[in-house]
Amino acid sequence: MKTKAHTILLALSVTVFAFSLIFYPQQSLEASIRGLNMWWEVVFPSLLPFFIVSELLIGFGVVHLLGVLLEPLMRPLFNVPGVGGFVWAMGMASGYPSGAKLTARLYQEKQISMIEAERLSSFTNSSNPLFIFGAVSVGFFHNPRLGMIFALSHYIGNVFVGLIMRFHRKAEEQRTQPTKQHSFSIRHAFHILHETRLKNKQPLGKLLGDAVRSSVQTLLMIGGFIILFSVINKLLYMIHMTEHIALLFQYMLHLFQLPKELSIPFISGVFEITLGSQMISQVEQANLLEKAIVTSFILSFGGFSVQAQVASILAEANIRFQPFFVARMIHGCVSALFTYILWEPLYVRFYSIHETKGAIPVFLTEHAPLWLFQYWKFLTQYGPLITLLSLCMYALLLFLTLNKKAD
């Protein structure tokens, strides 16, 4: 009976979505273009280098070397192997959903167990600094100084989640898997690096081609989810579903003494963080602290768009999605709490700014870190060109591969 109800619900949801597309074609097109622009200009060109480099590092055995060196840090703190340190660093630098992709790859390479993969994916997926400082702080709030609050609360929250998830299925792991003792040895680390390189006898060109194909395929999937959830978010607003859902969340916001006007932007952010962050920044009935708290939550929660991307990646490796979702709820709450805690010492006192209800301080973008502003400007100007050239290279590699198989 439960399975039938689930089937009916899914069928009904897809039917409503299809009819909504028919009734609101113009709004759907605009939402699709908006999602495409975000992927085309920023997401693809910013994530592609990280994905390719990560694939090459795994192929050359550098990740094995880092795993031995980082074992004394990652095992006591997060109860994951040392290679988790590489995934954690790359996940923070490149953003969603890099941590999930690398976790799945390491699990498929049998470098981590299923339980370790669930732990690792729960705290290695985060928003990247470019999005936090460039898009949210400068682009939406016009206040680059907010970036430090968002970043600290976000990454401290991530560490907190990792410390909690170290106990995930620990008793089961102790029963089924023997405890391995790893000693720190630079000589052993380089020995592992050399052995891994000898086992992988593929030439450099083949490794590079595989890295490009795998990275572009993942980014195409990510782009599809970004466009899809951008349209879903818009259609939910058009059929007034967002307003009805927001009524339920108004009570929750009231419990935390947050204005009800943030409910609709909050719902939008739960589905897609970019639109939600932008809508929150435009709410005049809330002060800056209230907006920062809600924004921190949705940045850490990730939105259903990001979670769908992660779920798709984890499903390919048969890794459970539930621990990741629970971790995102914890991360959102912890980040919002740290935003409130850090606000007084790091924003009000440090910058000597006193906010009043409805007032939003506006700073010139030149106050942002120069390299970050220049990088963001570079992506918005040349991102589409990088994306187009990369897609052409991917098409050429795919054509050559298919030709080779045909011969």
Automatic annotation (TrEMBL):
<feature type="domain" description="Nucleoside transporter/FeoB GTPase Gate">
    <location>
        <begin position="219"/>
        <end position="315"/>
    </location>
</feature>
<feature type="transmembrane region" description="Helical">
    <location>
        <begin position="382"/>
        <end position="402"/>
    </location>
</feature>
<feature type="domain" description="Nucleoside transporter/FeoB GTPase Gate">
    <location>
        <begin position="42"/>
        <end position="139"/>
    </location>
</feature>
<dbReference type="InterPro" id="IPR014226">
    <property type="entry name" value="Spore_IM_YlbJ"/>
</dbReference>
<feature type="transmembrane region" description="Helical">
    <location>
        <begin position="47"/>
        <end position="70"/>
    </location>
</feature>
<protein>
    <submittedName>
        <fullName>Sporulation integral membrane protein YlbJ</fullName>
    </submittedName>
</protein>
<keyword id="KW-1133">Transmembrane helix</keyword>
<feature type="transmembrane region" description="Helical">
    <location>
        <begin position="292"/>
        <end position="313"/>
    </location>
</feature>
<feature type="transmembrane region" description="Helical">
    <location>
        <begin position="325"/>
        <end position="343"/>
    </location>
</feature>
<keyword id="KW-0812">Transmembrane</keyword>
<keyword id="KW-0472">Membrane</keyword>
<feature type="transmembrane region" description="Helical">
    <location>
        <begin position="146"/>
        <end position="165"/>
    </location>
</feature>
<dbReference type="Pfam" id="PF07670">
    <property type="entry name" value="Gate"/>
</dbReference>
<dbReference type="InterPro" id="IPR011642">
    <property type="entry name" value="Gate_dom"/>
</dbReference>
<feature type="transmembrane region" description="Helical">
    <location>
        <begin position="77"/>
        <end position="96"/>
    </location>
</feature>
